[in-house]
Fold:
Amino acid sequence: MSFREDGQAALDWAANYLETVGELPVLAQVEPGEIRARLPASAPEYGEPFADVLRDVDEVLLPGITHWQSPRFFAYFATTASEPGILAELLAATLNSVSFLWRTSPASTELEAVTLDWVAQLLGLPDGWHGHIEDTASTSTLAALAAGREATGGRVVVCSEHAHSAVDKAARLLGLELRKTAADADFRLRPDRLDLTDAAAVVATVGTTSTTSVDPVSQIADACEEAGVWLHVDAAYAGSAWVCPEFRWSQVGVERADSLVVNAHKWLFTPMDCSLLWSRRPEALRAAFSLVPEFLRTSDEAESLSDYGPALGRRFRSLKLWAVLRCYGREGLQARIREAVRLAELFEGWVGDEPGWELCAPRHFSLVCFRLDASDEENEALLERANRTGELFISHTKLEDQYVLRLAIGNERTTEADVRRAWEVLRREARGG
Ligand SMILES: Cc1ncc(COP(=O)(O)O)c(C=O)c1O
Structure:
Protein backbone atom coordinates (compact mmCIF):
# COMPACT_ATOMS: atom_id res chain seq x y z
CA MET A 1 0.00 0.00 0.00
CA SER A 2 1.17 3.50 -0.68
CA PHE A 3 1.23 6.49 1.62
CA ARG A 4 -1.56 7.96 -0.46
CA GLU A 5 -3.81 4.90 -0.10
CA ASP A 6 -3.04 4.40 3.58
CA GLY A 7 -3.57 8.10 4.08
CA GLN A 8 -6.96 7.94 2.41
CA ALA A 9 -7.89 5.04 4.67
CA ALA A 10 -6.74 6.96 7.76
CA LEU A 11 -8.71 10.02 6.72
CA ASP A 12 -11.79 7.87 6.09
CA TRP A 13 -11.28 6.35 9.51
CA ALA A 14 -11.13 9.83 11.07
CA ALA A 15 -14.22 11.02 9.20
CA ASN A 16 -16.21 7.90 10.16
CA TYR A 17 -15.09 8.25 13.76
CA LEU A 18 -16.23 11.85 14.00
CA GLU A 19 -19.58 10.95 12.40
CA THR A 20 -20.26 8.10 14.82
CA VAL A 21 -18.45 9.03 18.05
CA GLY A 22 -21.77 10.07 19.60
CA GLU A 23 -22.92 6.44 19.47
CA LEU A 24 -19.92 5.06 21.41
CA PRO A 25 -19.81 4.74 25.23
CA VAL A 26 -18.26 8.04 26.36
CA LEU A 27 -16.25 6.58 29.24
CA ALA A 28 -14.16 3.56 28.29
CA GLN A 29 -15.86 0.47 29.68
CA VAL A 30 -12.68 -1.54 30.35
CA GLU A 31 -10.79 -2.69 33.44
CA PRO A 32 -7.19 -1.61 34.16
CA GLY A 33 -4.77 -3.87 32.25
CA GLU A 34 -7.41 -5.11 29.81
CA ILE A 35 -6.05 -3.26 26.77
CA ARG A 36 -2.46 -4.11 27.62
CA ALA A 37 -3.36 -7.78 27.84
CA ARG A 38 -4.67 -7.66 24.28
CA LEU A 39 -1.41 -6.26 22.92
CA PRO A 40 1.74 -8.24 22.06
CA ALA A 41 4.47 -7.90 24.69
CA SER A 42 7.12 -7.01 22.06
CA ALA A 43 7.33 -5.08 18.81
CA PRO A 44 7.16 -7.16 15.60
CA GLU A 45 10.39 -8.36 14.07
CA TYR A 46 9.30 -7.42 10.57
CA GLY A 47 7.23 -4.48 9.47
CA GLU A 48 3.49 -4.90 9.11
CA PRO A 49 1.10 -3.09 6.77
CA PHE A 50 -0.42 0.15 8.02
CA ALA A 51 -3.84 -1.41 7.39
CA ASP A 52 -3.12 -3.80 10.30
CA VAL A 53 -2.43 -0.84 12.54
CA LEU A 54 -5.72 0.75 11.55
CA ARG A 55 -7.56 -2.54 12.14
CA ASP A 56 -6.08 -2.87 15.62
CA VAL A 57 -6.99 0.71 16.46
CA ASP A 58 -10.57 -0.35 15.86
CA GLU A 59 -10.49 -3.80 17.37
CA VAL A 60 -7.99 -3.48 20.22
CA LEU A 61 -7.69 0.17 21.20
CA LEU A 62 -11.09 1.69 20.55
CA PRO A 63 -12.79 -0.12 23.46
CA GLY A 64 -10.17 1.48 25.71
CA ILE A 65 -10.72 5.02 24.45
CA THR A 66 -12.61 7.52 26.58
CA HIS A 67 -14.15 9.67 23.90
CA TRP A 68 -13.17 13.28 24.47
CA GLN A 69 -14.67 14.01 21.06
CA SER A 70 -18.09 12.72 22.13
CA PRO A 71 -20.86 15.30 22.26
CA ARG A 72 -21.76 13.89 25.69
CA PHE A 73 -18.30 14.27 27.21
CA PHE A 74 -19.10 16.66 30.07
CA ALA A 75 -16.26 15.86 32.50
CA TYR A 76 -13.37 18.11 33.65
CA PHE A 77 -13.41 20.78 30.92
CA ALA A 78 -14.89 19.40 27.72
CA THR A 79 -12.82 20.12 24.61
CA THR A 80 -12.97 19.92 20.82
CA ALA A 81 -10.35 18.86 18.30
CA SER A 82 -11.98 20.60 15.34
CA GLU A 83 -11.66 19.37 11.79
CA PRO A 84 -9.32 22.17 10.61
CA GLY A 85 -7.16 21.52 13.67
CA ILE A 86 -7.02 17.77 12.98
CA LEU A 87 -6.00 18.30 9.36
CA ALA A 88 -3.35 20.84 10.33
CA GLU A 89 -1.89 18.30 12.78
CA LEU A 90 -1.40 15.97 9.82
CA LEU A 91 0.48 18.71 7.98
CA ALA A 92 2.57 19.56 11.06
CA ALA A 93 3.55 15.90 11.48
CA THR A 94 4.36 15.74 7.80
CA LEU A 95 6.67 18.76 8.00
CA ASN A 96 8.07 17.55 11.32
CA SER A 97 9.63 20.95 11.99
CA VAL A 98 11.69 21.19 15.14
CA SER A 99 11.71 24.89 15.80
CA PHE A 100 14.30 25.46 18.50
CA LEU A 101 16.08 28.16 16.50
CA TRP A 102 14.58 30.62 14.07
CA ARG A 103 16.64 29.06 11.24
CA THR A 104 15.45 25.52 11.99
CA SER A 105 11.94 26.66 11.11
CA PRO A 106 11.49 30.34 10.29
CA ALA A 107 7.85 29.86 9.30
CA SER A 108 6.96 28.01 12.50
CA THR A 109 8.61 30.67 14.67
CA GLU A 110 7.00 33.56 12.82
CA LEU A 111 3.56 31.96 12.47
CA GLU A 112 3.60 31.29 16.21
CA ALA A 113 4.20 35.00 16.87
CA VAL A 114 1.47 35.99 14.40
CA THR A 115 -1.16 33.56 15.73
CA LEU A 116 -0.47 34.65 19.31
CA ASP A 117 -0.95 38.28 18.21
CA TRP A 118 -4.18 37.30 16.44
CA VAL A 119 -5.55 35.54 19.51
CA ALA A 120 -4.49 38.46 21.73
CA GLN A 121 -6.55 40.75 19.49
CA LEU A 122 -9.51 38.36 19.43
CA LEU A 123 -9.50 38.17 23.21
CA GLY A 124 -9.04 41.93 23.67
CA LEU A 125 -5.65 41.69 25.38
CA PRO A 126 -3.28 44.67 25.49
CA ASP A 127 -1.10 45.38 22.44
CA GLY A 128 2.54 44.41 22.50
CA TRP A 129 2.54 41.36 24.78
CA HIS A 130 4.99 38.65 23.79
CA GLY A 131 3.27 35.34 23.13
CA HIS A 132 4.49 31.82 22.53
CA ILE A 133 3.07 28.28 22.76
CA GLU A 134 3.84 25.63 25.38
CA ASP A 135 2.38 22.13 25.48
CA THR A 136 0.14 22.56 28.53
CA ALA A 137 -0.91 25.12 31.13
CA SER A 138 1.22 23.16 33.58
CA THR A 139 4.31 24.05 31.55
CA SER A 140 3.14 27.61 30.88
CA THR A 141 2.64 28.14 34.61
CA LEU A 142 6.02 26.62 35.37
CA ALA A 143 7.61 29.01 32.85
CA ALA A 144 5.73 32.02 34.22
CA LEU A 145 6.69 31.25 37.81
CA ALA A 146 10.33 30.70 36.83
CA ALA A 147 10.25 34.16 35.24
CA GLY A 148 8.63 35.58 38.39
CA ARG A 149 11.35 34.05 40.54
CA GLU A 150 14.00 35.45 38.20
CA ALA A 151 12.47 38.93 38.19
CA THR A 152 11.82 39.25 41.92
CA GLY A 153 14.17 36.89 43.77
CA GLY A 154 11.18 35.90 45.93
CA ARG A 155 10.80 32.41 47.43
CA VAL A 156 7.05 31.98 47.72
CA VAL A 157 4.18 31.39 45.28
CA VAL A 158 0.80 32.65 46.46
CA CYS A 159 -2.54 31.46 45.08
CA SER A 160 -6.07 30.71 46.17
CA GLU A 161 -7.10 27.43 47.72
CA HIS A 162 -9.00 26.86 44.44
CA ALA A 163 -6.00 27.32 42.13
CA HIS A 164 -5.17 24.35 39.89
CA SER A 165 -2.71 21.75 41.19
CA ALA A 166 -0.43 22.75 38.29
CA VAL A 167 0.55 25.71 40.50
CA ASP A 168 1.49 23.39 43.38
CA LYS A 169 3.52 21.26 41.00
CA ALA A 170 5.35 24.22 39.45
CA ALA A 171 6.21 25.61 42.89
CA ARG A 172 7.53 22.21 43.94
CA LEU A 173 9.67 21.87 40.80
CA LEU A 174 11.07 25.38 41.23
CA GLY A 175 11.87 24.84 44.90
CA LEU A 176 9.44 27.59 45.88
CA GLU A 177 7.17 27.52 48.88
CA LEU A 178 3.43 27.52 48.17
CA ARG A 179 1.11 29.71 50.23
CA LYS A 180 -2.60 29.14 49.72
CA THR A 181 -5.01 31.98 50.40
CA ALA A 182 -8.56 31.54 51.63
CA ALA A 183 -11.45 32.03 49.20
CA ASP A 184 -14.81 33.73 49.77
CA ALA A 185 -18.25 32.11 49.67
CA ASP A 186 -18.18 32.28 45.86
CA PHE A 187 -14.80 30.50 45.68
CA ARG A 188 -12.79 33.64 44.78
CA LEU A 189 -9.43 34.45 46.33
CA ARG A 190 -9.85 36.89 49.22
CA PRO A 191 -7.46 39.81 48.59
CA ASP A 192 -7.74 40.91 52.24
CA ARG A 193 -6.11 37.59 53.17
CA LEU A 194 -3.12 37.96 50.82
CA ASP A 195 0.24 37.65 52.53
CA LEU A 196 2.98 38.61 50.06
CA THR A 197 5.95 38.30 52.42
CA ASP A 198 8.92 36.94 50.38
CA ALA A 199 6.58 36.31 47.45
CA ALA A 200 7.93 35.76 43.95
CA ALA A 201 4.53 35.52 42.30
CA VAL A 202 0.80 35.43 42.80
CA VAL A 203 -1.32 33.21 40.58
CA ALA A 204 -4.82 34.60 40.05
CA THR A 205 -7.30 32.29 38.36
CA VAL A 206 -9.99 33.38 35.94
CA GLY A 207 -12.18 30.30 35.69
CA THR A 208 -11.10 27.92 38.44
CA THR A 209 -11.21 24.23 37.69
CA SER A 210 -13.76 23.30 40.34
CA THR A 211 -16.34 26.03 39.73
CA THR A 212 -15.00 28.57 37.16
CA SER A 213 -14.92 31.24 39.87
CA VAL A 214 -13.05 34.41 38.94
CA ASP A 215 -10.47 35.83 41.33
CA PRO A 216 -10.57 39.65 41.78
CA VAL A 217 -7.62 40.30 39.50
CA SER A 218 -7.60 44.13 39.86
CA GLN A 219 -7.29 43.99 43.62
CA ILE A 220 -4.66 41.27 43.39
CA ALA A 221 -2.77 43.41 40.83
CA ASP A 222 -2.84 46.36 43.28
CA ALA A 223 -1.24 44.19 45.96
CA CYS A 224 1.34 42.76 43.53
CA GLU A 225 2.34 46.19 42.25
CA GLU A 226 2.77 47.53 45.75
CA ALA A 227 4.89 44.56 46.81
CA GLY A 228 6.84 44.21 43.54
CA VAL A 229 5.52 40.68 42.98
CA TRP A 230 4.94 38.95 39.62
CA LEU A 231 1.27 38.45 38.73
CA HIS A 232 0.46 35.37 36.67
CA VAL A 233 -3.14 34.90 35.51
CA ASP A 234 -4.35 31.36 34.88
CA ALA A 235 -7.24 31.64 32.43
CA ALA A 236 -6.52 28.21 30.94
CA TYR A 237 -10.21 27.46 30.43
CA ALA A 238 -12.15 30.72 30.67
CA GLY A 239 -9.77 32.96 28.71
CA SER A 240 -11.22 31.69 25.42
CA ALA A 241 -14.61 33.14 26.39
CA TRP A 242 -13.12 36.64 26.04
CA VAL A 243 -13.58 36.28 22.29
CA CYS A 244 -17.14 37.34 23.19
CA PRO A 245 -17.34 40.86 24.62
CA GLU A 246 -20.06 39.86 27.10
CA PHE A 247 -17.54 37.71 29.00
CA ARG A 248 -14.87 40.41 29.25
CA TRP A 249 -16.15 41.38 32.70
CA SER A 250 -13.93 38.51 33.83
CA GLN A 251 -10.91 40.11 32.17
CA VAL A 252 -10.84 43.28 34.26
CA GLY A 253 -7.35 43.66 35.73
CA VAL A 254 -5.77 41.04 33.48
CA GLU A 255 -4.17 43.86 31.47
CA ARG A 256 -1.95 44.43 34.52
CA ALA A 257 -0.68 40.84 34.65
CA ASP A 258 2.96 40.01 34.04
CA SER A 259 1.96 36.76 32.37
CA LEU A 260 -1.20 35.02 31.25
CA VAL A 261 -2.02 31.49 30.14
CA VAL A 262 -4.99 30.46 27.98
CA ASN A 263 -5.26 26.89 26.68
CA ALA A 264 -6.34 26.81 23.05
CA HIS A 265 -6.74 23.05 23.52
CA LYS A 266 -9.43 23.62 26.14
CA TRP A 267 -12.04 25.93 24.63
CA LEU A 268 -10.56 27.25 21.40
CA PHE A 269 -11.30 24.17 19.28
CA THR A 270 -7.63 23.28 18.83
CA PRO A 271 -6.45 19.68 19.28
CA MET A 272 -4.36 18.85 22.33
CA ASP A 273 -1.78 20.29 22.95
CA CYS A 274 -1.65 24.06 22.57
CA SER A 275 -1.19 26.31 25.60
CA LEU A 276 -0.79 30.02 24.91
CA LEU A 277 1.49 31.99 27.21
CA TRP A 278 1.78 35.77 26.96
CA SER A 279 3.98 38.07 28.96
CA ARG A 280 4.46 41.79 29.10
CA ARG A 281 7.94 41.14 30.54
CA PRO A 282 9.44 38.66 28.08
CA GLU A 283 12.96 39.59 29.19
CA ALA A 284 12.25 37.79 32.49
CA LEU A 285 11.29 34.61 30.62
CA ARG A 286 14.47 34.91 28.58
CA ALA A 287 16.53 35.44 31.73
CA ALA A 288 15.01 32.25 33.16
CA PHE A 289 15.34 30.06 30.07
CA SER A 290 17.85 31.33 27.52
CA LEU A 291 20.88 29.09 27.31
CA VAL A 292 22.93 29.02 24.13
CA PRO A 293 25.62 26.34 23.86
CA GLU A 294 28.09 26.63 21.00
CA PHE A 295 26.22 24.20 18.73
CA LEU A 296 23.12 26.42 18.85
CA ARG A 297 24.93 29.70 18.21
CA THR A 298 23.93 31.41 14.94
CA SER A 299 24.36 34.79 13.29
CA ASP A 300 20.58 35.09 12.78
CA GLU A 301 19.13 38.31 14.05
CA ALA A 302 15.85 36.74 15.02
CA GLU A 303 14.48 35.34 18.24
CA SER A 304 14.27 31.66 19.08
CA LEU A 305 11.13 30.74 20.97
CA SER A 306 12.97 28.03 22.92
CA ASP A 307 14.46 30.97 24.87
CA TYR A 308 11.06 31.49 26.53
CA GLY A 309 10.35 28.09 28.04
CA PRO A 310 11.79 24.78 29.25
CA ALA A 311 11.75 22.78 25.99
CA LEU A 312 14.36 23.08 23.27
CA GLY A 313 12.67 21.03 20.53
CA ARG A 314 9.31 22.59 19.74
CA ARG A 315 6.47 21.22 17.59
CA PHE A 316 4.79 23.29 14.89
CA ARG A 317 1.77 23.87 17.15
CA SER A 318 0.80 27.21 15.70
CA LEU A 319 -0.25 25.55 12.43
CA LYS A 320 -3.35 23.94 13.95
CA LEU A 321 -4.27 27.11 15.83
CA TRP A 322 -3.85 29.16 12.65
CA ALA A 323 -6.06 26.71 10.75
CA VAL A 324 -8.79 26.96 13.40
CA LEU A 325 -8.66 30.76 13.50
CA ARG A 326 -8.84 30.99 9.72
CA CYS A 327 -11.54 28.39 9.17
CA TYR A 328 -13.77 29.56 12.06
CA GLY A 329 -13.06 33.29 12.21
CA ARG A 330 -14.09 35.47 15.13
CA GLU A 331 -17.74 34.90 14.31
CA GLY A 332 -17.39 31.10 14.31
CA LEU A 333 -15.52 31.09 17.61
CA GLN A 334 -18.08 33.37 19.21
CA ALA A 335 -21.00 31.27 17.99
CA ARG A 336 -19.52 28.08 19.44
CA ILE A 337 -18.64 29.65 22.81
CA ARG A 338 -22.09 31.23 23.09
CA GLU A 339 -23.82 27.96 22.27
CA ALA A 340 -21.86 26.10 24.97
CA VAL A 341 -22.83 28.76 27.51
CA ARG A 342 -26.46 28.68 26.36
CA LEU A 343 -26.60 24.91 26.85
CA ALA A 344 -25.02 25.19 30.29
CA GLU A 345 -27.59 27.82 31.22
CA LEU A 346 -30.39 25.51 30.08
CA PHE A 347 -29.05 22.63 32.14
CA GLU A 348 -28.65 24.93 35.13
CA GLY A 349 -32.32 25.91 34.74
CA TRP A 350 -33.48 22.27 34.69
CA VAL A 351 -31.50 21.42 37.81
CA GLY A 352 -32.67 24.58 39.58
CA ASP A 353 -36.32 23.76 38.84
CA GLU A 354 -36.15 20.12 39.91
CA PRO A 355 -37.07 19.28 43.51
CA GLY A 356 -34.41 17.18 45.23
CA TRP A 357 -31.50 18.70 43.30
CA GLU A 358 -29.41 21.75 44.08
CA LEU A 359 -26.99 24.09 42.34
CA CYS A 360 -23.71 24.42 44.24
CA ALA A 361 -21.84 27.38 42.73
CA PRO A 362 -22.55 30.42 40.57
CA ARG A 363 -22.37 29.52 36.86
CA HIS A 364 -20.22 32.01 34.93
CA PHE A 365 -19.41 30.18 31.70
CA SER A 366 -20.23 26.65 30.51
CA LEU A 367 -19.80 24.64 33.72
CA VAL A 368 -22.62 23.72 36.08
CA CYS A 369 -21.89 22.50 39.63
CA PHE A 370 -24.80 20.63 41.17
CA ARG A 371 -25.76 17.71 43.37
CA LEU A 372 -28.57 15.55 44.47
CA ASP A 373 -29.91 16.71 47.81
CA ALA A 374 -28.51 13.58 49.44
CA SER A 375 -25.35 12.27 51.08
CA ASP A 376 -21.89 12.43 49.49
CA GLU A 377 -21.96 8.66 49.12
CA GLU A 378 -25.23 8.79 47.19
CA ASN A 379 -23.89 11.50 44.88
CA GLU A 380 -20.70 9.57 44.26
CA ALA A 381 -22.67 6.40 43.56
CA LEU A 382 -24.90 8.36 41.17
CA LEU A 383 -21.87 9.66 39.26
CA GLU A 384 -20.44 6.15 38.97
CA ARG A 385 -23.74 4.67 37.82
CA ALA A 386 -24.39 7.44 35.30
CA ASN A 387 -20.87 7.20 33.84
CA ARG A 388 -21.11 3.41 33.64
CA THR A 389 -24.13 3.70 31.34
CA GLY A 390 -21.72 5.03 28.70
CA GLU A 391 -24.31 7.63 27.78
CA LEU A 392 -22.43 10.53 29.30
CA PHE A 393 -19.27 11.30 31.24
CA ILE A 394 -19.26 13.81 34.10
CA SER A 395 -16.73 14.47 36.86
CA HIS A 396 -16.86 15.85 40.38
CA THR A 397 -15.21 18.16 42.87
CA LYS A 398 -15.48 18.94 46.56
CA LEU A 399 -16.85 22.27 47.70
CA GLU A 400 -16.93 23.09 51.38
CA ASP A 401 -16.32 19.41 52.02
CA GLN A 402 -19.33 18.34 49.99
CA TYR A 403 -19.21 16.02 46.99
CA VAL A 404 -20.39 18.02 43.97
CA LEU A 405 -21.11 16.92 40.39
CA ARG A 406 -19.76 18.97 37.48
CA LEU A 407 -21.23 19.11 33.99
CA ALA A 408 -18.96 21.03 31.59
CA ILE A 409 -19.94 21.85 28.02
CA GLY A 410 -17.25 22.52 25.45
CA ASN A 411 -17.50 20.08 22.58
CA GLU A 412 -18.70 21.80 19.42
CA ARG A 413 -20.86 18.80 18.49
CA THR A 414 -22.89 18.94 21.70
CA THR A 415 -26.53 19.73 20.98
CA GLU A 416 -29.48 20.55 23.18
CA ALA A 417 -30.63 16.94 22.69
CA ASP A 418 -27.31 15.69 24.14
CA VAL A 419 -27.66 17.86 27.23
CA ARG A 420 -31.29 16.81 27.65
CA ARG A 421 -30.27 13.15 27.37
CA ALA A 422 -27.59 13.66 30.03
CA TRP A 423 -30.17 15.19 32.36
CA GLU A 424 -32.59 12.31 31.71
CA VAL A 425 -29.89 9.74 32.48
CA LEU A 426 -28.97 11.54 35.70
CA ARG A 427 -32.59 11.75 36.83
CA ARG A 428 -33.23 8.13 35.91
CA GLU A 429 -30.11 6.92 37.75
CA ALA A 430 -30.98 9.10 40.75
CA ARG A 431 -34.31 7.25 40.96
CA GLY A 432 -32.32 4.02 41.08
CA GLY A 433 -32.21 3.17 37.36
C1 LIG B 1 -7.63 26.56 35.53
C2 LIG B 1 -6.68 25.49 35.04
N1 LIG B 1 -5.37 25.72 35.05
C3 LIG B 1 -4.50 24.79 34.62
C4 LIG B 1 -4.91 23.57 34.14
C5 LIG B 1 -3.90 22.56 33.69
O1 LIG B 1 -3.96 22.44 32.31
P1 LIG B 1 -2.99 21.46 31.49
O2 LIG B 1 -3.65 20.12 31.50
O3 LIG B 1 -2.93 22.10 30.12
O4 LIG B 1 -1.67 21.45 32.17
C6 LIG B 1 -6.28 23.30 34.11
C7 LIG B 1 -6.77 22.00 33.60
O5 LIG B 1 -7.93 21.71 33.58
C8 LIG B 1 -7.18 24.28 34.57
O6 LIG B 1 -8.50 24.04 34.60
User: Anything to note?
Assistant: Residues 76-77, 136-138, 164, 166, 205, 207-209, 234, 236-237, 263, 275 surround pyridoxal-5'-phosphate (CB under 6 Å). The mean pLDDT is 97. The first helix runs from residue 3 to 20. The first strand starts at residue 130 and ends at 134.
